[in-house]
UniProtKB/TrEMBL annotation:
It comes from Dillenia turbinata. Pfam families: 2OG-FeII_Oxy, DIOX_N. This is Non-hem dioxygenase N-terminal domain. Residues 191-310 form the Fe2OG dioxygenase domain. One of its GO terms (molecular function) is metal ion binding.
Length: 359
């Protein structure tokens, strides 16, 4: 875990109804388990991710989305990785957003950074450092070394991956798992299939979109209250998501009683979302949280999500500690690759885990 900077240690106002967990508190593992059981969603404070790493990534994201469409399209289409605009997945879902979806593996970031950033070395820096041998790094000239000292995608991904692992180890502790690193080990794995996503929701004014194609026809993304949906209702297929947004609201999470709860934006902290894979590992003790993003804001919203996932071939099945005569195994074993394939073959809002229920 990186050492926290003073800026992120400031006490924050608690969001009403949303569990807020202080990662420096003594009973944090207990509180995390409780939040995962009740909501599948919580906020973390005192997380230790340096502000400059977060701001560095936000600046790169803002810079990318401020460019002309023709330039952004060079990083697309998203199949599924790359730049995407409005279309989500491959089965007709759409929303009022544009995005960049990246695989977090170093080679992939290295390749993508060329079409994403005006300064690819700055965008991918840390990954480049990991790809080069120590001798190669020493032979870089002063200017390149300087660029390597600034950072964006890699440093951000590394920092939030560490945060996700810390949280998963606390989950292991709180659930009294024999091996507390069993879940974090999956996303630390060199072959982890984790993703990173930047979502940009352009601004709306007076309920009408003045800066974004007003003639766009919605498919499944309009809700009854006539507010437009930026990213429709869904759960994340992975183990855990670490979400951070700028100071613009829009995220809503669905509570157990089916109500949509608006999540106040908090640029200095992170929100954590339980994904489908964690629901299966915990045999349904935790439920993946259904959430959506509304696109009715007066300001553009930029959110950044790290989706922690296992390697494609690794098996997902309820952990032995989660099974008892009173709680029989709910899911048959399946691989992360199978769950991902199911996700991409269904619609955004579908409950893909249902396909893996034991008979
Ligand atoms: C939801 C969580 C992540 O954003 C994502 C999304 C993915 C995509 O946008 O390409 C999916 C969606 C997400 C779930 C169902 C499928 C796949 C779009 C879609 C319709 C990157 C992911 O892993 O699953």
């Amino acid at each position: 875990m990186v050492v926290p900077t003073p800026a992120v240690r400031t006490k924050k106002t608690r969001a009403v109804g949303i569990p807020t967990i202080d990662l420096s508190s003594l009973n944090r593992s207990e509180l995390i388990v409780k939040a995962c059981e009740q909501y599948g969603f919580f906020k973390v404070i005192n997380h230790g991710v340096p502000r400059e790493i977060v701001m560095g990534m936000e600046e790169e994201g803002q810079d990318f989305f401020s460019r002309p469409p023709i330039e952004k399209q060079k990083a697309g289409p998203a199949t599924p990785f790359g730049y995407g605009c409005k279309n989500i997945g491959f089965n007709g879902d759409s929303g009022e957003l544009e995005y960049l979806l990246l695989h977090t593996d170093p080679v992939s970031i290295f390749e993508r950074s060329k079409s994403i950033s005006r300064d690819p070395a700055k965008f991918r820096k840390g990954h480049l450092a990991r790809l080069l041998s120590y001798a190669q790094i020493l032979s870089l000239n002063q200017n390149q070394n300087h660029k390597m000292a600034s950072c964006a995608a890699n440093d951000y991904i590394e920092a939030v991956k560490d945060l996700a692992c810390e949280i998963l180890e606390l989950v292991g502790e709180g659930l009294w798992l024999e091996d507390k690193t069993i879940l974090s080990g999956l996303i630390r794995d060199f072959q982890s299939d984790s993703f990173f996503r930047l979502n940009h929701y352009p601004q709306f004014k007076d309920g009408k979109n003045n800066v974004w194609d007003p003639h766009h026809k919605f498919q499944s993304s309009t809700v009854g209250d006539s507010k437009r949906v930026g990213f429709g209702e869904h759960s994340d297929p992975q183990i855990l998501t670490i979400l951070r947004s700028n100071d613009v609201g829009g995220l809503q999470v669905c509570t157990n009683d089916g109500l949509w709860m608006p999540v106040p934006p908090d640029p200095s902290d992170f929100y954590v979302l339980v994904g489908d894979a964690l629901q299966a590992f915990t045999n349904g003790r935790f439920s993946s949280v259904r959430h959506r993003a509304m696109a009715n804001s007066a300001k553009p919203r930029l959110s950044m999500m790290y989706f922690g996932a296992p390697p494609v071939d690794s098996w997902i099945s309820p952990l032995p500690e989660m099974i008892s005569p009173l709680k029989p195994c709910l899911y048959r074993p399946f691989t992360w690759g199978e769950l991902k394939k199911a996700a991409y073959s269904l619609r955004l809002s579908d409950c893909r885990l249902d396909l893996f229920k034991s008979t």
